[in-house]
Design goal:
Elements (H helix, E strand, L loop, with lengths): L1 E5 L3 H13 L3 E5 L10 H4 L9 E4 L5 E4 L1 H12 L7 H31 L5 H22 L11 H10 L13 H11 L2 H6 L12 H15 L1
Parallel strand pairs: 1-2
Antiparallel strand pairs: 1-3, 3-4
Helix pairs in contact: 1-3, 1-6, 4-5, 4-6, 5-7, 5-9
């Protein structure tokens, strides 16, 4: 049994979708980041960095794993699924997983912050992170024009990138003109495990309508310059 400490964020969904795809039994332990529960002493014993998600594998002597990418690798290795056993295949998956960890996640995360939450509107900062996120999307689109999935077969690399790219609107980044990326997004969205994983620990609907849509359009104008 796996204890999953998580909240409804892209990084949280990376792990919940992975667990669903692997068919592993798990117990959800919600960590309300809005209330700062990730900074409480009990959680810091599991993840000293104070970030969700984290897991505790009860079958392995209560072994704790933090960092979403590390958790995905651990679970894939535990089950022998979503990660090839041959060296080159494993490397391909790991490369695209690291692409998300080091690129898409940090850049889109900063786009989210400056576009949605930062107290001052800083057009140059918004444009910088939205531009870089869009550039990374074009890299994904090019790769997905060569292969159905990022590393050949469906893998944890797809789950990791999908969990972030699917909420591109929230960062004010368009996927127009990226047909391969759009095809891939739609295909994963149809997977029952992906749908179930997005309900953990609760369903979140991001409202980008009306005034927010207008804000997105304005920001996209900056990106396209």
């Amino acid at each position: 049994m796996i204890d999953l400490y998580t909240w409804a964020t892209p990084n949280g969904h990376k792990v919940s979708v992975t667990l669903e795809e692997l068919g592993l039994a798990y117990t959800v332990k919600p960590v309300d980041i809005g209330k700062g529960e990730q900074k409480q002493p009990g959680f810091l014993k599991i993840n000293p960095n104070g970030r969700i998600p984290a897991i505790v594998d009860r079958e392995e002597g209560d072994f704790a794993v933090f960092e979403s990418g590390a958790i995905m690798l651990y679970l894939a290795e535990k089950t022998g699924k979503l990660l090839p056993s041959d060296r080159k295949g494993r490397s391909r998956v790991t490369q695209w997983l690291m692409f998300q960890m080091g690129g898409v996640g940090p850049m889109q995360g900063q786009a989210n912050v400056f576009f949605r939450y930062f107290p001052e509107k800083l057009p140059s900062a918004i444009a910088r992170y939205q531009n870089e996120t869009r550039r990374l999307y074009t890299v994904l689109d090019t790769r997905l024009g060569e292969s159905e999935y990022l590393a050949g077969e469906y893998s944890i690399a797809d789950i990791a990138n999908w969990a972030w790219v699917r909420v591109h609107d929230w960062a004010g980044v368009s996927i127009d003109g990226l047909p391969n990326l759009q095809r891939w997004l739609a295909a994963i969205e149809q997977r029952p495990a992906a749908q179930k994983g997005l309900t953990v620990p609760h369903v979140v609907k991001l409202d980008t309508s009306t005034a927010q849509d207008q804000a997105i359009k304005s920001a996209q104008t900056i990106v396209q310059r």
